[in-house]
Design goal:
Layout lengths: L5 E3 L7 H13 L31 E5 L5 E3 L3 E7 L5 H4 L3 E12 L7 E7 L2 E9 L2 E5 L4 E4 L4 E5 L4 E7 L1 H6 L1 E11 L10 E5 L6 E3 L5 E7 L1 E2 L2 E2 L8 E8 L4 E4 L6 E13 L2 E3 L4 E4 L6 E16 L6 E4 L2 E3 L2 H12 L9
Parallel strand pairs: 1-24
Antiparallel strand pairs: 2-22, 3-4, 4-5, 5-12, 6-11, 7-10, 7-12, 8-9, 8-11, 10-13, 14-15, 15-18, 16-17, 18-23, 19-23, 20-21, 20-22, 20-23, 24-25
Length: 344
């Protein structure tokens, strides 16, 4: 895969006024996933796995362990898989960031818990709810609540402010909480599309029931065995919410040139005879061949596959654009109030 340009901005080449604001945001704990993970380091070692040549199966490039968990705002205890400052922005393009809040028990609280108002431009942010409830508001007037199994898909496009908190009833009662957030980089020609919001109920996801009681594939985006996903995206991707029963043995294929990976949300699997424990991420090679998943116990998987953008990009915190000038413009537009207004 060829990338013509990559640059990650730091405080050294961003105006001091914005750097001060950013520090204030971090101190208040409200920029959350927008700013907390870029440039982090992997904890644990990626185990390089090689499949036997000529067996007709797609190779496994590695099985990655997550980072140590840390709090984002006061409502999300997350582990990160990419980008981690390791060039994974390129390796998994168009997918840019993957954070996972593994199951944790939040006690009842009268204080709002979550991530407060923060900006985005140039990306889409997707939140999967596995346990618990999250409430979303944004500066375009969109509002949604997602419960276990639901997905919210926000296109930031030309710019939006949003916030995510534990839903009020869940916040007061507490309980098991498990969430995932994914960023998708928008292609250059779609960087400035109007912001929009897609609320996807679990019951509305198109699904494929697997034979022999193996489980179900919920097609969020793209296509699986002729069943098309419910979400609209701006570049070709496949995204599956896969629920497998213990002993399931599933075979499928993804386009050879697509960047593809599998997160083991819950349970444990082998992928083409390579073991992947719970909360680990499997990076697949960019080559043809079958993908065979065997569930050693009941599991939930997130399968990601996308055509690489092969475009230059520059990222700074909540903004992912194509040039440094566009990053400065995003900062100035945000400071000028062009992303709209949203009360915290």
């Amino acid at each position: 895969m060829t990338i013509r340009c990559r640059r990650v901005l730091t405080f050294r080449n961003i105006p001091n006024s914005f750097a001060i604001e950013r520090k204030e945001f971090l101190h208040r704990g409200i920029l959350g996933t927008a700013l907390a993970f870029i440039g982090g380091a992997f904890c644990g070692t990626a185990k390089a796995m090689e499949n036997l040549a000529g067996n007709g199966q797609r190779g496994v490039e590695g099985v990655l362990s997550p980072t140590n968990s840390h709090m984002v705002g006061n409502g999300f205890k997350v582990m990160n898989y990419f980008p981690n400052g390791k060039g994974f922005e390129e390796r998994m393009s168009p997918f840019f960031l993957l954070d996972f809040n593994a199951e944790v028990n939040f006690p009842p609280s009268d204080i709002s818990q979550g991530v407060g108002v923060h900006p985005h431009r140039g990306i889409e942010t997707i939140t999967f709810a596995y346990k618990g409830s999250v409430e979303h508001h944004d500066s375009k007037g969109n509002h949604g609540i997602i419960n276990a199994g639901d997905v919210q898909w926000m296109t930031a496009g030309g710019g939006v402010l949003h916030k995510e908190y534990h839903e009020q009833t869940f916040n007061r009662t507490g309980g098991a909480f498990e969430m995932l957030q994914l960023w998708i980089n928008l292609p250059k020609k779609h960087k400035r599309v109007p912001a929009k919001y897609q609320s996807i109920l679990h019951s509305k996801k198109p699904k494929v029931t697997l034979p022999k009681g193996a489980g179900t594939v919920h097609v969020v985006a793209g296509e699986y065995e002729g069943v098309k996903g419910i979400a609209t995206a701006y570049s070709p991707i496949h995204m599956y919410d896969m629920h497998l029963n213990a002993g399931a043995d599933v075979n499928f294929q993804l386009p050879a040139n697509y960047n593809s990976g599998i997160l083991v949300v819950d349970g444990a699997i082998t992928v083409n005879d390579t073991a992947a424990p719970e909360n680990h991420y499997v990076q697949l090679k960019n080559e043809g061949g079958a993908i065979r998943i065997q569930a050693t116990r009941k599991c939930i998987l997130l399968v990601l596959s996308g055509e690489p953008l092969n475009e230059p990009y520059v990222n700074y915190g909540p903004f992912v654009m194509n040039t440094e000038e566009e990053i400065h413009e995003a900062i100035e537009d945000y400071k000028a109030g062009k992303f709209g207004f949203l009360a915290d």
